[in-house]
Each structure stands twice: as structure tokens, then as C-alpha cells.
Specification:
By secondary structure, this protein is α/β, with parallel strands linked by helices. It has 2 domains: 2-199, 3-Layer(aba) Sandwich (Rossmann fold), CATH 3.40.50.880; 219-517, TIM Barrel. 29% of the residues lie in helices and 26% in strands. It has 16 helices and 30 strands. Strand 14 and strand 15 (234-237) form a beta hairpin. Helix 7 (256-266) runs parallel beside helix 8 (287-297), helix 10 packs across helix 12 and helix 14 packs across helix 16. The two termini are 28 Å apart. 51% of the residues are buried. The structure holds ligand 1PR. Ligand 1PR binds next to strand 14, strand 22 and helix 10.
């Protein structure tokens, strides 16, 4: 089945292509106006900024062909910005006209909640549609956006979603459908919607169980620490307090692509790969890691994050690469987000001395790919003091006293996989990174990593209270109760674990069922 894809060149459309291909579609790219006019089915996955997308369409001479196609009665699927540009204009780009196919405007969220709205949320269908065939109504879909459409004609709304406000999360008008969420990143439910669009036949239905109000789910993330073993093969490994060797050999927990696929099938809401020796090697020479990402993104349809070695780099021949170039290679290989570790510490040290440079990896990558694509991975260690006056860093009074009975501690950042401690604390680091454009914090703990003792709740609470972007709690999960604790007692939006999943001590479905029973909103597959 032939699908024409409109890629205006701003972002990663690989996941949309992978999802369509996995459903048997043959994807052709729009190269000029005639490809739009001759398309049988057109898919428009918009990424980036409303103003840039409209400018790119104008410069490529695609505006009129697109309007003509939308009037032609042939199937159209818009995704995210591919929905928003159908309207007259957006608060994101005042004065820039949209396609104006439907009357109405695009508004920014003005809610007392973190913006962008990132994560898995539900749908409240407003009318029957072929797209809902095979759905129960309880599924959740992956959203990442700061703006939503307000159609002037209420009958356009296909679904509503709640996030501080009820907003239109999908529209349908004859053969034209457009979705605010990303079906290509929404697991089996998203693939079902894409399949229903591609089939384009059958009865319009309403799912049997429609929620009264939809809720954002807390996310469960599976993390794969990847490095070469002593034979040079890339393997998933797992450390204890960051030491990944056992009897002198790198612990081998399995193949990265196979494990990622297993976690996807078990219901992981995201998969994170950390190339843990990325600080030593140059990641663009690390073709196997790019290949792992490519192969994973062909079969795993939830968001993928990659970390390790995202920084400016000069290779042996003296050629320099920017962190943005490194990140772009990862996005092209199928990543949705990159995670920055050591470089974030150096950036914050520099910021505290001189203020923002405008050229750091955090600033450059978030300007091009958006805030939501930049995660900061922090590797802190507890540093105990007898009295808060001993340090200029923000201290907490801890319920877990230090080795000499110290009642206070601060959380010291490290670089190079925990090998080197720096004079920066995790709270300051998180705050500055948010200001520079980071979209999420992945908060590890060297003290808890691999111990199964539970998350460092004091650390997670301190950092998540200091920022308004989502915090992913990491390190130490040992049983279902630990996941509940972190959601009940801190403001973490997501919980990440590695060892217990690799060793099958606890599996993802069991974690989610436990959380659901305790009243925590989760996505069940
Ligand atoms: O500094 O930008 O090159 O990034 C390197 C990345 O690799 C950082 O994100 C850093 O956290 C990670 N990393 C470096 N060395 C190690 C190591 O283990 N020796 N792994 C490492 C960090 C921590 C988590 C782990 C959780 C959960 N691993 O990723 O998965 O602690 O584990 P658990 O559930 O088993 O307790 P750069």
C-alpha cells in the first residue's frame, strides 16, 4: 500500500516511516508539488515550530498543492503540527497565517501544570470513527506539545483530552484526520490507529469504555546501559554503584536490541540507552551504537532516548564536530531524545562563572529539536556534612545519617561515569539546565545504583521541587513498592529501572498492576 509522506525537513520522521513500514505500507517522500497532487494517501508529521513549518511549505511551493489535496476528498493524516497548521494561525507564531483549511486558532497551554504536556494521556471520543476500530477506549497515547487547536466548528472535534483544560486532541472531517498525539510512538494502540487509517474501510464505531476525564500516566522506563565487552561486542551491562565489572569482566546482561524489544512488548513507556563509555570514545565512530538505535526504532514504537558522549568533539584527524551534529546523527538513527551527562556539568560550571554562552549543547540542541528532546542525566553522590555552614551548596537534613552520624548532606555531581566528583550540586545543576532549555531531568544516584534498596527519595524530592520540568527517578528500584513510594512521596513524573528488569526479579506488567491497584495512573498494555 502506497503512502506519501510530507517531510518538510525539520525533524525526525524516521519513527513515522518505521511505523508505517511495519504495517506493510510503502512510503514515498514528497519531493515537489506534483508528489502531493498525485498522492493516494498523504501523511504529514509536523515537527518543530509553526512559523518555520509554514515558511518551509511556502518556500517549497507546497502551500497550494496541500490545500488542493485537502479539498480533493482523498485520505489525509496530520500528526502534531500536521494538525495545527490546518487552522488559521497559532499563538506560537503571531501574524503567520496557517493553511486555513478549517476556521480556528492554535493556543498555548495556560495551566498550572508543566508545559509541554509530555507523556501518555487518554482520549474522550466525541463521535464514531473508523479510526477507533479495535480500541477499548481505555488506551493511552503519547503526547508532546505546548499548543493545542481550538476549532471554530465544534463538530470537527473527534476526541478531547484533559490536561488542566479540556482540549481537542484529534479532528476528523470526511477523509481528513489529524491527531495531536503521536500514533507512531504510542505502542500497539497507536499502530492500531495508523492501521485503521491505512485500511480506510469498515464501520465508524465508538469505543465501548470511554473515560469521563483523561489523566496523564506516570511513566515506567527501562534503561539499558550499553558498552563493549572485553571482546568488543556491544552488550547491555549493569553496575553496582557504577562498577560494571564482576570478577574482572564486564557483566553481560544481553543484547541491546532484543532487550529493548522485550521491554516494549512488556509495556515499558520509554526505553533509554546509555552508552556508558561514550565519554571516552567519539560516538559518531561508534557505528554499532547507531546501528542498535536504527534496528530498535524499526520494532519499538515508544519514545527512545540515547545518552553518552553528547558533546563537542575533535577526532584524531583534527576534524571538529559539534554536540548538535552528534545529536542529529542520533535523531536520524531513530532517537526521540538525547541525554547529556558530563557535558551538562561543565556547562553549568561555565554558566556559574560567566552566564549563558548561547552555544552550549543544551542550548543548541533544544533550539533546533525542541526542549522536549533534551534530557539531562545527573550522576550525584551524597556528600555528608556535620553542619550546613561547612558548604556553600544547598543541603538537606537527612533521615539517613552519614558514616559518622552526619545529619546533613548535599548531592555532589560527578562526570565520566561517576569517576570524577565536581564542585556543583544536583539541585543547582537541574535549575540551570532547565533555564538553558533542558526538557527533562534523569536523576540517577551513585549511592543507590544497582543496590535494590529503593530510590533516594530525599534526592528526588529535593530536585523535583527545584524545577518545573519532569524528573525521572532512577537508581535503586528493588520491588514494586519502591515504584509506588517514589510516585506517592515525590513529584517524579517517571521511574526508571535497569537491574530488576534485566534479571526478571520484577517485570514491568507487575509494576504497573501494583501501581494501578494503589491508585497511581499508569498505561496498561
Ligand atoms: O557523560 O554524557 O557521556 O553520559 C554518560 C551516561 O552514562 C550518563 O548518563 C551516565 O549516567 C551513564 N553512566 C556512565 N557510567 C555508568 C556506569 O554505570 N558505570 N550508568 C553509567 C549510569 C545509571 C542508570 C542505571 C540506574 C538504574 N547508570 O542508568 O540504569 O541507576 O539502575 P538500577 O535500577 O539497576 O539501580 P556522558
Amino acid at each position: 500500500m502506497r503512502v506519501t509522506l510530507l517531510d518538510y525537513g525539520a525533524g525526525n520522521v524516521r519513527s513515522v516511516v518505521n511505523a508505517l513500514t511495519s504495517l506493510g505500507a510503502k512510503v514515498h517522500f514528497v519531493e515537489g508539488p506534483e508528489d502531493i497532487l498525485s498522492a493516494e494517501r498523504l501523511v504529514f508529521p509536523g515537527v518543530g515550530h509553526f512559523g518555520s513549518i509554514m515558511q518551509a511549505l511556502r518556500e517549497k511551493g507546497l502551500l497550494e498543492p496541500l490545500r488542493e489535496y485537502l479539498r480533493s476528498g482523498r485520505p489525509f493524516l496530520g500528526i502534531c503540527l500536521g494538525l495545527q497548521v490546518l487552522f488559521e494561525g497559532s499563538e506560537e507564531a503571531p501574524g503567520v497565517a496557517g493553511l486555513g483549511v478549517f476556521p480556528g486558532f492554535v493556543r498555548r497551554f495556560r495551566v498550572n501544570l508543566p508545559v509541554p504536556h509530555i507523556g501518555w494521556n487518554g482520549l474522550r471520543p466525541q463521535k464514531p470513527s473508523r479510526l477507533f476500530q479495535g480500541l477499548s477506549g481505555e488506551e493511552k497515547f503519547y503526547f508532546v506539545h505546548s499548543y493545542y487547536v481550538e476549532p471554530a466548528d465544534p463538530s470537527l472535534a473527534l476526541t478531547f483530552t484533559d490536561y488542566g483544560v479540556s482540549f481537542v486532541s484529534a479532528i476528523e472531517a470526511g477523509p481528513v484526520v489529524a491527531l495531536q498525539f503521536h500514533p507512531e510512538k504510542s505502542g500497539p494502540a497507536g499502530l492500531k490507529i495508523l492501521e485503521n487509517f491505512l485500511r480506510g474501510e469498515g464501520e465508524a464505531v465508538k469505543p465501548p469504555r470511554v473515560p469521563q476525564r483523561t489523566r496523564l500516566a506516570k511513566r515506567i522506563i527501562a534503561c539499558l546501559d550499553v558498552r563493549s565487552d572485553d571482546q568488543g561486542r556491544l552488550v547491555v551491562t549493569k553496575g553496582l554503584q557504577y562498577d560494571v565489572r564482576e570478577a574482572g569482566r564486564v557483566r553481560d546482561m544481553g543484547d541491546p536490541v532484543e532487550l529493548a524489544q522485550r521491554y516494549y512488548e512488556e509495556g515499558a513507556d520509554e526505553i533509554t540507552f546509555l552508552n556508558i563509555t561514550g565519554f571516552r570514545h567519539f560516538p559518531l565512530q561508534d557505528q554499532p551504537m547507531l546501528e542498535v538505535l536504527r534496528r530498535t526504532s524499526e520494532r519499538v514504537f515508544v519514545p527512545l532516548t540515547i545518552g553518552g558522549g553528547i558533546r563537542d568533539f575533535t577526532d584524531r584527524d583534527g576534524r571538529s564536530y559539534t554536540a548538535l551534529e552528534v545529536a542529529s546523527a542520533y535523531f536520524r538513527a531513530g532517537a526521540d531524545k538525547v541525554s547529556i551527562g558530563s557535558d551538562a556539568v561543565y556547562i553549568v560550571e561555565d554558566y556559574l562563572r560567566r552566564g549563558p554562552s548561547g552555544r552550549s549543547s543544551i542550548e543548541t540542541i533544544s533550539r533546533v529539536y525542541g526542549r522536549q528532546a533534551v534530557v539531562i542525566s545527573i550522576d550525584p553522590k551524597r556528600h555528608y556534612v556535620k553542619d550546613p555552614s561547612e558548604t556553600p551548596h544547598p543541603v538537606i537534613e537527612t533521615a539517613l545519617p552519614g558514616p559518622n552520624g552526619e545529619r546533613y548532606c548535599w548531592f555532589q555531581c560527578t562526570v565520566k561515569g561517576g569517576r570524577e566528583a565536581r564542585d556543583v550540586d544536583a539541585i543547582t545543576l537541574a535549575r540551570v539546565c532547565e533555564e538553558l532549555g533542558a526538557g527533562e531531568i534523569l536523576l540517577n544516584s551513585i549511592d543507590r545504583d544497582g543496590t535494590n534498596l529503593g530510590y533516594d527519595l530525599e534526592l528526588i524530592q529535593a530536585v523535583s521541587e527545584a524545577v518545573s520540568i519532569p524528573v525521572i527517578a532512577s537508581s535503586g528500584a528493588g520491588c514494586e513498592e519502591h515504584f509506588y513510594e517514589v510516585f506517592a512521596r515525590t513529584r517524579a513524573e517517571a521511574a526508571l529501572a535497569a537491574g530488576i528488569f534485566h534479571r526478571r526479579q520484577v517485570e514491568i506488567p507487575a509494576v504497573k498492576r501494583y501501581l494501578r491497584e494503589k491508585g497511581i495512573e499508569v498505561r496498561l498494555v
